[in-house]
User: Fold this.
Amino acid sequence: MTSNIFKGLALLALLASCSADETVGLASGHGGNACNAVYMGNSNASGVVAVLASDETGATFSVMPRLAHQADADVTVTVEVDTETLAAYNKANNLAVVPIEAGDITLSNASGQEAKGKITATIKAGDVSTVVNGKLASLSADKYPYSGRYAVPLKITKVEGPYKLLSSPQTTIINLNRKIKTSVLHVTSTSGDHGYTMLMTPKTPYDVEMSEWTLQYIAQFNSLKNNNQTTASMRGGSGFYNRISPGYGLQVKSEGRDGDDTWTLKPAKEGEWMHVSYVYRKNGLVGNLTIYVNGEAQRSFVTSLLYPKGPDGGWGFGNVNLKDYYLRELRFWNRALTPAEIQDKYYLPELPDAPGLEAYFPFTKESYDEGTQTFRDLTGKWTWTLAEKISSGEVTMTKEIIDNVVFPAKSLVVEE
Assistant:
Protein backbone atom coordinates (compact mmCIF):
# COMPACT_ATOMS: atom_id res chain seq x y z
CA MET A 1 0.00 0.00 0.00
CA THR A 2 2.85 2.39 0.86
CA SER A 3 4.42 1.90 -2.55
CA ASN A 4 1.12 2.85 -4.19
CA ILE A 5 0.98 6.04 -2.13
CA PHE A 6 4.49 6.99 -3.17
CA LYS A 7 3.74 6.16 -6.80
CA GLY A 8 0.63 8.34 -6.78
CA LEU A 9 2.49 11.21 -5.17
CA ALA A 10 5.27 10.82 -7.71
CA LEU A 11 2.87 11.20 -10.61
CA LEU A 12 1.20 14.21 -8.97
CA ALA A 13 4.58 15.79 -8.32
CA LEU A 14 5.64 15.35 -11.92
CA LEU A 15 2.39 16.70 -13.33
CA ALA A 16 2.50 19.70 -11.02
CA SER A 17 6.22 20.42 -10.99
CA CYS A 18 7.92 19.01 -14.08
CA SER A 19 7.54 22.11 -16.24
CA ALA A 20 8.94 22.62 -19.72
CA ASP A 21 11.87 24.53 -18.25
CA GLU A 22 12.67 21.75 -15.82
CA THR A 23 12.65 19.04 -18.49
CA VAL A 24 15.25 20.82 -20.61
CA GLY A 25 18.50 18.91 -20.38
CA LEU A 26 17.07 16.01 -18.36
CA ALA A 27 18.43 12.66 -19.40
CA SER A 28 15.85 10.22 -20.68
CA GLY A 29 14.55 8.03 -17.91
CA HIS A 30 13.76 4.34 -17.94
CA GLY A 31 11.49 3.64 -20.85
CA GLY A 32 12.49 6.86 -22.60
CA ASN A 33 10.45 9.23 -20.42
CA ALA A 34 12.16 12.62 -20.59
CA CYS A 35 10.46 13.85 -17.41
CA ASN A 36 12.41 12.04 -14.69
CA ALA A 37 13.82 13.99 -11.78
CA VAL A 38 14.65 13.75 -8.07
CA TYR A 39 12.14 14.72 -5.37
CA MET A 40 11.43 13.90 -1.74
CA GLY A 41 9.02 10.98 -1.46
CA ASN A 42 6.49 11.75 1.27
CA SER A 43 3.63 9.60 2.53
CA ASN A 44 1.24 12.57 2.57
CA ALA A 45 0.75 15.76 0.59
CA SER A 46 1.81 18.03 3.46
CA GLY A 47 5.28 16.54 3.70
CA VAL A 48 4.95 16.58 7.50
CA VAL A 49 5.17 13.37 9.52
CA ALA A 50 5.20 12.76 13.27
CA VAL A 51 7.42 10.46 15.32
CA LEU A 52 7.55 9.79 19.05
CA ALA A 53 10.52 11.27 20.89
CA SER A 54 11.67 11.00 24.49
CA ASP A 55 14.22 12.67 26.75
CA GLU A 56 16.10 9.42 27.26
CA THR A 57 16.09 7.66 23.89
CA GLY A 58 15.51 10.53 21.48
CA ALA A 59 13.91 9.56 18.17
CA THR A 60 14.58 7.71 14.93
CA PHE A 61 13.14 8.50 11.51
CA SER A 62 13.80 8.21 7.79
CA VAL A 63 13.23 10.12 4.55
CA MET A 64 13.20 8.85 0.98
CA PRO A 65 14.73 10.73 -1.98
CA ARG A 66 13.05 9.34 -5.11
CA LEU A 67 12.82 9.29 -8.87
CA ALA A 68 9.58 8.87 -10.78
CA HIS A 69 11.17 6.14 -12.90
CA GLN A 70 14.14 3.80 -12.56
CA ALA A 71 17.53 5.46 -12.88
CA ASP A 72 19.70 4.64 -15.89
CA ALA A 73 22.77 5.75 -13.93
CA ASP A 74 23.70 6.42 -10.31
CA VAL A 75 22.28 9.65 -8.88
CA THR A 76 23.84 11.15 -5.74
CA VAL A 77 21.74 13.45 -3.56
CA THR A 78 22.59 15.59 -0.55
CA VAL A 79 20.11 15.66 2.34
CA GLU A 80 20.56 18.05 5.23
CA VAL A 81 18.85 19.72 8.16
CA ASP A 82 17.53 22.99 6.74
CA THR A 83 16.17 25.61 9.15
CA GLU A 84 14.83 27.81 6.34
CA THR A 85 12.39 25.02 5.44
CA LEU A 86 10.89 25.14 8.92
CA ALA A 87 10.89 28.95 9.01
CA ALA A 88 8.83 29.03 5.80
CA TYR A 89 6.48 26.37 7.18
CA ASN A 90 6.00 28.34 10.40
CA LYS A 91 5.26 31.56 8.53
CA ALA A 92 2.78 29.94 6.17
CA ASN A 93 0.89 28.23 9.00
CA ASN A 94 1.09 30.67 11.91
CA LEU A 95 3.29 28.31 13.95
CA ALA A 96 6.38 28.61 16.13
CA VAL A 97 7.94 25.15 15.82
CA VAL A 98 11.63 25.13 16.82
CA PRO A 99 14.21 23.24 14.70
CA ILE A 100 16.47 20.67 16.31
CA GLU A 101 20.09 21.76 15.88
CA ALA A 102 21.88 20.07 12.98
CA GLY A 103 24.68 18.94 15.29
CA ASP A 104 22.18 16.92 17.34
CA ILE A 105 21.03 14.90 14.30
CA THR A 106 23.00 11.92 12.97
CA LEU A 107 22.13 11.02 9.38
CA SER A 108 23.12 7.75 7.72
CA ASN A 109 22.85 6.36 4.17
CA ALA A 110 22.35 2.89 2.73
CA SER A 111 26.13 2.32 2.68
CA GLY A 112 26.32 2.78 6.45
CA GLN A 113 28.07 6.14 6.35
CA GLU A 114 27.11 8.59 9.11
CA ALA A 115 27.40 12.36 9.44
CA LYS A 116 26.01 15.16 11.60
CA GLY A 117 23.21 17.16 10.00
CA LYS A 118 24.19 16.55 6.34
CA ILE A 119 24.91 13.47 4.22
CA THR A 120 25.04 12.23 0.63
CA ALA A 121 23.13 9.17 -0.55
CA THR A 122 22.95 7.39 -3.89
CA ILE A 123 19.98 6.21 -5.91
CA LYS A 124 21.55 3.28 -7.75
CA ALA A 125 21.07 2.65 -11.46
CA GLY A 126 17.95 0.48 -11.85
CA ASP A 127 16.41 1.76 -8.57
CA VAL A 128 13.86 4.51 -7.95
CA SER A 129 14.76 5.53 -4.41
CA THR A 130 17.15 5.46 -1.50
CA VAL A 131 16.62 5.87 2.24
CA VAL A 132 18.32 8.33 4.57
CA ASN A 133 17.92 7.45 8.23
CA GLY A 134 18.06 9.94 11.08
CA LYS A 135 18.74 9.68 14.79
CA LEU A 136 18.27 12.18 17.60
CA ALA A 137 20.13 10.79 20.60
CA SER A 138 18.15 12.69 23.25
CA LEU A 139 15.40 15.27 23.43
CA SER A 140 16.89 16.75 26.59
CA ALA A 141 14.49 19.00 28.48
CA ASP A 142 17.44 21.19 29.48
CA LYS A 143 18.07 22.09 25.84
CA TYR A 144 14.57 21.54 24.44
CA PRO A 145 12.06 22.55 27.16
CA TYR A 146 8.58 21.05 27.36
CA SER A 147 7.05 24.43 26.58
CA GLY A 148 8.24 24.22 22.97
CA ARG A 149 7.33 22.25 19.86
CA TYR A 150 10.24 20.75 17.93
CA ALA A 151 10.89 19.33 14.49
CA VAL A 152 13.66 18.13 12.19
CA PRO A 153 13.36 19.87 8.79
CA LEU A 154 15.16 17.89 6.06
CA LYS A 155 15.75 19.00 2.49
CA ILE A 156 17.38 17.66 -0.66
CA THR A 157 19.84 20.47 -1.37
CA LYS A 158 21.94 19.02 -4.20
CA VAL A 159 21.76 16.42 -6.98
CA GLU A 160 24.74 14.97 -8.87
CA GLY A 161 24.01 12.80 -11.90
CA PRO A 162 21.84 12.80 -14.99
CA TYR A 163 18.71 14.20 -13.31
CA LYS A 164 17.74 17.53 -11.81
CA LEU A 165 15.79 18.31 -8.65
CA LEU A 166 12.09 19.04 -8.99
CA SER A 167 10.89 22.35 -7.56
CA SER A 168 8.56 20.46 -5.22
CA PRO A 169 8.53 18.44 -3.03
CA GLN A 170 12.11 18.82 -1.82
CA THR A 171 11.50 18.60 1.94
CA THR A 172 10.19 16.47 4.79
CA ILE A 173 9.45 17.91 8.22
CA ILE A 174 9.71 15.42 11.09
CA ASN A 175 7.50 16.61 13.97
CA LEU A 176 8.67 15.28 17.33
CA ASN A 177 5.84 14.16 19.60
CA ARG A 178 6.78 13.96 23.26
CA LYS A 179 5.24 11.35 25.50
CA ILE A 180 3.26 13.00 28.30
CA LYS A 181 1.08 11.90 31.22
CA THR A 182 -2.06 13.77 32.15
CA SER A 183 -5.56 13.17 33.52
CA VAL A 184 -8.91 12.92 31.75
CA LEU A 185 -12.60 13.07 32.65
CA HIS A 186 -14.67 9.88 32.53
CA VAL A 187 -18.44 10.42 32.20
CA THR A 188 -21.12 7.75 32.36
CA SER A 189 -24.92 8.04 32.37
CA THR A 190 -27.54 5.39 33.00
CA SER A 191 -30.90 7.14 32.62
CA GLY A 192 -32.58 10.32 31.50
CA ASP A 193 -34.11 12.06 28.51
CA HIS A 194 -32.55 14.12 25.71
CA GLY A 195 -30.27 17.09 26.34
CA TYR A 196 -26.72 18.08 27.25
CA THR A 197 -24.64 16.35 29.89
CA MET A 198 -22.34 19.36 30.32
CA LEU A 199 -22.60 23.04 29.47
CA MET A 200 -19.89 25.59 28.70
CA THR A 201 -21.00 29.23 28.75
CA PRO A 202 -19.19 32.54 28.15
CA LYS A 203 -19.29 34.95 31.09
CA THR A 204 -19.94 37.76 28.60
CA PRO A 205 -22.45 36.71 25.91
CA TYR A 206 -21.48 36.93 22.25
CA ASP A 207 -23.74 39.48 20.56
CA VAL A 208 -21.53 40.22 17.55
CA GLU A 209 -21.59 37.65 14.77
CA MET A 210 -18.42 35.58 14.40
CA SER A 211 -17.13 35.34 10.84
CA GLU A 212 -15.03 32.30 11.76
CA TRP A 213 -14.34 29.98 14.67
CA THR A 214 -12.91 26.57 15.56
CA LEU A 215 -14.16 24.08 18.15
CA GLN A 216 -11.86 21.20 19.16
CA TYR A 217 -12.18 18.26 21.52
CA ILE A 218 -10.28 15.09 22.31
CA ALA A 219 -12.53 12.21 23.36
CA GLN A 220 -12.86 8.46 23.44
CA PHE A 221 -16.32 6.91 23.09
CA ASN A 222 -16.86 3.44 24.52
CA SER A 223 -20.52 2.69 23.83
CA LEU A 224 -21.59 3.72 20.34
CA LYS A 225 -24.83 1.73 20.36
CA ASN A 226 -27.45 4.40 19.71
CA ASN A 227 -28.13 6.53 16.64
CA ASN A 228 -29.04 9.63 18.68
CA GLN A 229 -25.72 10.19 20.42
CA THR A 230 -24.86 13.88 20.55
CA THR A 231 -21.32 15.19 20.91
CA ALA A 232 -20.83 18.97 20.47
CA SER A 233 -23.87 21.24 20.35
CA MET A 234 -23.95 25.01 19.81
CA ARG A 235 -26.34 26.85 22.09
CA GLY A 236 -27.89 30.14 21.05
CA GLY A 237 -30.60 29.50 18.48
CA SER A 238 -28.75 28.05 15.48
CA GLY A 239 -30.06 24.50 15.86
CA PHE A 240 -26.50 23.28 15.19
CA TYR A 241 -25.40 20.02 16.77
CA ASN A 242 -23.38 16.92 15.98
CA ARG A 243 -24.04 13.26 16.42
CA ILE A 244 -21.67 10.31 16.30
CA SER A 245 -22.32 6.88 14.79
CA PRO A 246 -19.99 3.88 14.40
CA GLY A 247 -21.07 3.42 10.78
CA TYR A 248 -21.65 7.00 9.59
CA GLY A 249 -19.03 8.93 11.57
CA LEU A 250 -19.88 12.49 12.60
CA GLN A 251 -22.99 14.43 11.63
CA VAL A 252 -23.48 18.17 11.09
CA LYS A 253 -27.07 19.30 11.69
CA SER A 254 -28.47 22.82 11.61
CA GLU A 255 -31.94 24.25 10.97
CA GLY A 256 -33.65 21.13 9.71
CA ARG A 257 -30.79 19.58 7.71
CA ASP A 258 -30.93 15.79 7.95
CA GLY A 259 -30.20 12.62 6.01
CA ASP A 260 -27.07 10.86 4.75
CA ASP A 261 -25.68 14.09 3.30
CA THR A 262 -25.20 15.50 6.81
CA TRP A 263 -22.71 12.75 7.81
CA THR A 264 -18.99 12.48 7.14
CA LEU A 265 -19.55 8.80 6.19
CA LYS A 266 -16.22 7.92 7.87
CA PRO A 267 -16.75 5.19 10.50
CA ALA A 268 -16.07 6.10 14.13
CA LYS A 269 -14.42 3.47 16.32
CA GLU A 270 -15.19 2.69 19.92
CA GLY A 271 -12.33 2.75 22.39
CA GLU A 272 -10.00 4.98 20.35
CA TRP A 273 -9.03 8.59 20.96
CA MET A 274 -10.56 11.03 18.48
CA HIS A 275 -9.11 14.51 18.01
CA VAL A 276 -12.03 16.40 16.43
CA SER A 277 -11.93 19.94 15.02
CA TYR A 278 -14.87 21.85 13.55
CA VAL A 279 -13.53 24.76 11.47
CA TYR A 280 -16.14 27.38 10.44
CA ARG A 281 -15.92 30.28 8.01
CA LYS A 282 -18.70 32.64 6.97
CA ASN A 283 -19.15 32.73 3.19
CA GLY A 284 -21.66 35.41 2.26
CA LEU A 285 -25.12 34.40 3.41
CA VAL A 286 -24.06 30.87 4.38
CA GLY A 287 -21.34 29.21 6.39
CA ASN A 288 -18.80 26.55 5.54
CA LEU A 289 -17.84 23.96 8.15
CA THR A 290 -15.01 21.44 7.76
CA ILE A 291 -14.61 18.47 10.10
CA TYR A 292 -11.13 17.19 10.92
CA VAL A 293 -10.62 13.89 12.75
CA ASN A 294 -7.12 13.04 13.97
CA GLY A 295 -5.71 15.77 11.74
CA GLU A 296 -7.47 14.58 8.57
CA ALA A 297 -10.04 16.74 6.82
CA GLN A 298 -13.01 14.38 6.46
CA ARG A 299 -15.69 16.54 4.87
CA SER A 300 -16.89 20.12 4.35
CA PHE A 301 -20.53 21.19 4.71
CA VAL A 302 -22.49 24.26 3.66
CA THR A 303 -24.49 25.45 6.69
CA SER A 304 -26.54 28.35 7.91
CA LEU A 305 -24.65 31.19 9.63
CA LEU A 306 -23.42 29.84 12.96
CA TYR A 307 -22.14 31.46 16.12
CA PRO A 308 -23.04 31.06 19.81
CA LYS A 309 -25.08 34.24 20.26
CA GLY A 310 -27.06 35.81 23.08
CA PRO A 311 -27.42 35.15 26.80
CA ASP A 312 -28.00 31.43 26.24
CA GLY A 313 -25.10 31.07 23.79
CA GLY A 314 -22.30 28.60 24.40
CA TRP A 315 -21.55 24.93 23.88
CA GLY A 316 -22.98 21.72 25.21
CA PHE A 317 -21.31 18.35 25.06
CA GLY A 318 -22.86 14.92 25.19
CA ASN A 319 -26.32 13.61 25.90
CA VAL A 320 -27.52 10.72 28.02
CA ASN A 321 -27.48 8.38 25.02
CA LEU A 322 -23.72 8.84 25.04
CA LYS A 323 -23.38 6.37 27.89
CA ASP A 324 -19.63 6.08 28.42
CA TYR A 325 -16.91 8.42 27.25
CA TYR A 326 -13.59 9.99 28.21
CA LEU A 327 -12.99 13.67 27.53
CA ARG A 328 -9.51 15.09 27.65
CA GLU A 329 -10.08 18.71 26.70
CA LEU A 330 -12.19 21.19 24.76
CA ARG A 331 -10.99 24.37 23.04
CA PHE A 332 -12.94 27.15 21.35
CA TRP A 333 -11.22 29.71 19.10
CA ASN A 334 -12.42 32.93 17.47
CA ARG A 335 -10.58 32.09 14.25
CA ALA A 336 -10.36 29.29 11.70
CA LEU A 337 -7.28 27.20 12.50
CA THR A 338 -5.13 26.05 9.60
CA PRO A 339 -4.61 22.30 8.98
CA ALA A 340 -1.02 22.70 10.21
CA GLU A 341 -2.21 24.37 13.43
CA ILE A 342 -4.63 21.50 14.02
CA GLN A 343 -1.82 18.97 13.66
CA ASP A 344 0.79 20.99 15.53
CA LYS A 345 -0.54 20.54 19.06
CA TYR A 346 -2.31 17.34 18.22
CA TYR A 347 -2.35 16.14 21.82
CA LEU A 348 -0.10 18.59 23.68
CA PRO A 349 -1.48 21.20 26.12
CA GLU A 350 -2.22 24.68 24.79
CA LEU A 351 -1.15 28.02 26.26
CA PRO A 352 -4.16 29.86 27.78
CA ASP A 353 -3.06 33.12 26.12
CA ALA A 354 -2.69 31.62 22.63
CA PRO A 355 -3.94 34.13 20.02
CA GLY A 356 -7.66 33.67 19.37
CA LEU A 357 -8.30 31.16 22.17
CA GLU A 358 -11.71 31.96 23.67
CA ALA A 359 -12.23 28.97 25.95
CA TYR A 360 -9.88 26.19 27.09
CA PHE A 361 -11.14 23.37 29.31
CA PRO A 362 -8.50 20.71 30.05
CA PHE A 363 -10.46 18.08 31.98
CA THR A 364 -7.63 17.32 34.38
CA LYS A 365 -7.24 17.12 38.15
CA GLU A 366 -5.31 20.42 38.03
CA SER A 367 -8.22 22.28 36.44
CA TYR A 368 -10.88 20.77 38.71
CA ASP A 369 -12.18 22.80 41.65
CA GLU A 370 -13.17 20.44 44.47
CA GLY A 371 -15.16 23.15 46.23
CA THR A 372 -17.49 23.94 43.34
CA GLN A 373 -17.01 20.55 41.66
CA THR A 374 -16.49 22.27 38.33
CA PHE A 375 -13.72 22.52 35.77
CA ARG A 376 -12.02 25.85 35.13
CA ASP A 377 -11.67 27.54 31.78
CA LEU A 378 -7.97 28.47 31.77
CA THR A 379 -8.66 31.63 29.75
CA GLY A 380 -10.99 32.81 32.52
CA LYS A 381 -13.74 33.78 30.05
CA TRP A 382 -16.15 30.82 30.34
CA THR A 383 -17.81 28.64 32.98
CA TRP A 384 -18.57 24.91 33.10
CA THR A 385 -21.48 22.99 34.63
CA LEU A 386 -22.53 19.36 34.63
CA ALA A 387 -26.26 19.09 34.00
CA GLU A 388 -28.33 17.71 36.88
CA LYS A 389 -31.54 17.51 34.88
CA ILE A 390 -31.87 16.86 31.19
CA SER A 391 -35.18 17.77 29.56
CA SER A 392 -37.98 16.19 31.57
CA GLY A 393 -36.02 13.22 32.86
CA GLU A 394 -33.92 12.87 35.99
CA VAL A 395 -30.37 11.92 35.06
CA THR A 396 -28.19 9.36 36.76
CA MET A 397 -24.64 10.40 35.93
CA THR A 398 -21.20 9.81 37.33
CA LYS A 399 -17.94 11.57 36.67
CA GLU A 400 -14.43 10.63 37.70
CA ILE A 401 -10.97 11.88 36.90
CA ILE A 402 -8.56 9.24 35.59
CA ASP A 403 -4.92 10.09 36.30
CA ASN A 404 -1.63 9.05 34.64
CA VAL A 405 -3.13 8.75 31.17
CA VAL A 406 -0.45 8.55 28.47
CA PHE A 407 -0.43 10.51 25.19
CA PRO A 408 0.10 9.96 22.34
CA ALA A 409 -1.81 6.68 22.39
CA LYS A 410 -4.46 5.01 20.27
CA SER A 411 -6.63 3.99 23.20
CA LEU A 412 -6.73 4.64 26.95
CA VAL A 413 -3.29 3.84 28.42
CA VAL A 414 -2.63 4.36 32.13
CA GLU A 415 0.90 4.17 33.55
CA GLU A 416 1.30 4.53 37.30
